[in-house]
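Appendix B, record 7
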Amino acid sequence: MDRSDVTLERMRTFVRVAERGSLSAVARELGIGQSTVTRHLRELEAAVGVSLLGRTTRRVTMTDEGTRYYATCVQILRLVDQAGEEARGTRSAPAGTVRVSCTAALGVLHVTRLLLAFQDRYPDIGIDLGLTDERVDLVRDGVDVAVRLGPLGDTAMTLRRLGASRRVLVASPAYLAARGTPTDPRDLLGHEGLRMTNVAGSDTLLLEGPDGARHAVPFGGRLRVDHGLAAREALIAGRGIAPAHRWLVDDLVAAGRLIVVMPEYSLPTTPLSLLVVPERAGITRVRLLVDVLAAEIAGLPGIDPPGGTAPAART
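Structure tokens (predicted):
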């Protein structure tokens, strides 16, 4: 086998196996048999003349030669994709698939609708949407764009700040009628708090009063959930008071199904960001979607523009 057998198909297979560490996962992703994945790798290694991957019973890892070869392959495949996009862009509408990951509740209530409108505008662009509150590895999981709520650590991804999400304290009219309406942070101690298990520090409620004084109030109750839509349903059912993003409950407040409690007290805001895999950022369909999402998400209820001075939420 000679160097002419280093095909783009085999190279793409190698890159995805290197990123995901699993032959079976890549086979499912590419819609081919695992034996085909194995054959692509074997033929590629024979063509380049070195072992690129080390295999154990649990995981596939790159050799030193494989690590160097992977970096070059990523650059080559990026250039191939961009060249194709530029060629098609001169004679046809943008096409292809964009893989998107989004915070679950935000995705269900708002982002799905935005993606559908985007597809109406660009019917040849496919969308593969994954909804999760977990921090996915964009490269490993084959994601192009991620909408993320909350502070981010160091990241190699291209970062686009969308703004800060404001929160309010809310409860149902029935709950407040039964338990009374708090007017002071100290009043919250006698109330049932609805907490999020996937938000660190949710056992303490941070509030800033109209006079600028800050309050840290112990916050707890009998119900904890790990999904914003579950919290929304529990609030409607009168199970307690909770801090909620405005985009999560604004429609319920407008309809009178929830009431904003102690509106003169403010809660820390939460950063909202778009992450894009750098190698995918220059592709036309990805760039178009990023621009649309950035513009539309900025118009959602309670999203302050980037650069505000509100304190960041605890995580």
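Remarks on this record: Residues 270 and 313 are 5 Å apart (CA to CA). The chain has nine helices and 15 strands.
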